Amino acid sequence: MFEKVEAAYRRIKNYVNHTPTMTSSTLDQLLDCKCFFKCENFQKIGAFKFRGAMNTLLQLSQEERRKGVITHSSGNHAQALALAAKVLGVHAVIVMPENAPKVKMAATKGYGAQIVVCGSKPSDREEAVKPLIAKHGYTFVHPSDDLRIIHGAGTAAYELITDVGSLDYIFVPVGGGGLLSGTAIATKGLLPNCKVIAVEPANADDAYRTFKTGKLQPSINPQTIADGLRTQLGPNTFQIVMKLVDDIITVTEEQIVDAMQFLWERMKLVVEPSGAVSLAGVLSKKVSVAGKKVGIVISGGNVDLTSFFTTLRTKVAAVTPNSKTEKERE
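RESULT FIELD:
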């Protein structure tokens, strides 16, 4: 499988950003270790998902490109497939749940994709996709369980290890398991002794339950601010996770927010809840990392900052004579 990640890297390297690796002396002192952040919040569309989307579309046949592609996603995969399709001149249809973040839905539409809104339950997405495939012959690109998506996602860890060398641990978020699976393949291919630790919100712990029981568990009413991690493992990611991942730990919603705050305040990195889950796992100290070299994959930075800037504008209006409120400007 590792050679597939290497091939994906060669295939997409001229299309994706080679994202930076960053460090924090404050965090290193706090945990008595050396941490390296793979900052996929600086990837195109603001998340690692562009890697897998581009790897997949570059492998489509001419007939598949002509008919177009379809997927379902709450945000980052939607944006990634939309942009990759725009770059390659392929029609893309994205089924998005009604509770998807507005900032992600707007970005997806801005890349030129056709959006179809569905219900908020995980099953609603698949039910909306099926008749569209039957009618138009679209190629379905699963957000996480497509092996081409997995291999593309693995190029983030491939870059990280190539840049910093040996690591003792690598922490990565898990939702549908595409990034985790790709990371595990790349990591074990380059560093067989490096431990791959997945981190999941306790409020959406299906991957954790799956890992502990050895049986694929359903996602049951996942109420978490980490919207990108509300999906569940699929057949491919399940097999890879059970074979290559060393452990899965969970974190609370409060720990996720604390990790976001640390990244924003101490490292000046805008990171979304799903992207901060990996750091939350390190900070939870459920895994002892003292004296170790630790990789931390920051998966994305797409945050809806509308309320933040609305608050700032309200403060500006309060101190600025003759200023107009947002409602008056409209």
